[in-house]
Amino acid sequence: MSKVFTGLAVSVDGFISGKPLEGAEEFGSGLGDAPTLFDWYFDGDTPSEVFDGFKLSEPSARFFDTIASRIGAIVVGRTTYEHSGRFGGGSPHPTAPMVLVTHCPVPESGGGQTVITTGVEDAIATAREIAGTKDVGLMGGGLVTSALAAGLVDEVILHQVPILLGKGRRFFNELPEHVELRLLQAIPAPGVTHLHYGVGR
């Protein structure tokens, strides 16, 4: 069976974005005052073979492309979807279709987007059907927390950037119980450390 995993850039103190910029709208503010979380996507000299325009360090490119090429479908939470401009009607991944999990219907969605309003379990099941033999990626802190609580996540990947933001949106929300992780890989690279964990059952 395909695996379900999440991977996202995160500060050492656990934030996936900084505080909103002054005057910014509620949605669409992106990383707020913390664009440095994504600097490692563009600060290298090795082009990604999966994402056009990404130029990473050699160790980051090797790890990132290996992970990105596994994805056959990606599930996105509503908050991430709105903050990302609804991905322009497409997907955050260049080849993998997107499944949006939301409690409320979406006024407009693109042709490459499937909208699920019946919960994270159904969204992941739908993504698995779309992905076939490939894996399912998860994107969004609330979504990941719900999937972890439901026992649906196999791996957690943190692209940890060496900064303490002190404020912003946290990756993980409160969980009902402990989740044991086992370290599979720790790859230091310029501006980021890639931490790859398996989730205990």
UniProtKB/TrEMBL annotation:
Pfam families: RibD_C
Protein name (Swiss-Prot/TrEMBL): Riboflavin biosynthesis protein
Organism phylogeny: Bacteria, Bacillati, Actinomycetota, Actinomycetes, Pseudonocardiales
InterPro entries according to UniProt: DHFR-like_dom_sf, RibDG_C, Riboflavin_Biosynth_HTPR
SUPFAM superfamilies linked to this entry: Dihydrofolate reductase-like (SSF53597)
Residue span(s) of domain Bacterial bifunctional deaminase-reductase C-terminal: 4-185
Transmembrane segments annotated in the record for this chain: none
